């Protein structure tokens, strides 16, 4: 029997990527929705890591299994690393990503290629029923292009171009994106940490 992990997110794009990465483990990842948990979590931490821990601990209050959470976002160097932890709230929480992406492109109008660097950052926290907390982080470097490209992924993927792969993360399939992404890196580190920390504890 696989051990259950509730992933404390309401973002379906994340869940898809996460399920693929966790497929080869002894864990069964279920979404908050599948777990019947519908709570609004206030993400008032000052770092990705703090917010990931807040999300996982909030769900742990009403769960009986391992809870994991991801807090992630886009850092644009020219904008002093904005939107950063405010990525989901940038331009308003309910504003579409078509508009958010356009807002970022507009803010970079006239900015030359070398100054359009950006990165996706992902912090993951795993909280265990015994109170232990494990955390990891992953990043991927890219540049902000001038128009949206691609329709896979979610969020800021259509404007995030990865030079080494000559495409945006929205032009990659889930498997390719997971190989290089902030979330892929953070979650694979978490899998490794869980193996070394938790073996024999159960
Ligand atoms: O791979 C990614 N590809 C494109 N955009 C991404 C990615 N990863 C994070 N992002 C952006 C989307 C959102 O604006 C913010 C995450 O915000 P964040 O609060 O962590 O997630 P969320 O509110 O969508 O779902 P939840 O908090 O329920 O997990 O960064
Ligand atoms: Mg959020």
UniProtKB/TrEMBL annotation:
Compositional bias annotation for Basic residues:
179-191
Q: Which residues form the active site?
A: 71
Task: Indicate whether Magnesium appears among the record's keywords.
Answer: yes
Q: Which reaction does it catalyse?
A: ITP + H2O = IMP + diphosphate + H(+); dITP + H2O = dIMP + diphosphate + H(+); XTP + H2O = XMP + diphosphate + H(+)
Q: Could you say which residues bind substrate here?
A: 9-14, 72, 154-157, 177, 182-183
Sorted alphabetically, the Gene Ontology cellular component annotations on this record are: cytosol
* First-level EC class: hydrolase
Question: Superkingdom of this entry's organism?
Answer: Bacteria
State one Pfam family annotation: Ham1p_like
User: Which cofactors does this gene product need?
Assistant: Mg(2+)
Describe its assembly: Homodimer.
Homology family: Belongs to the HAM1 NTPase family.
- Write the protein's name: dITP/XTP pyrophosphatase
Organism, as annotated: Vallitalea guaymasensis
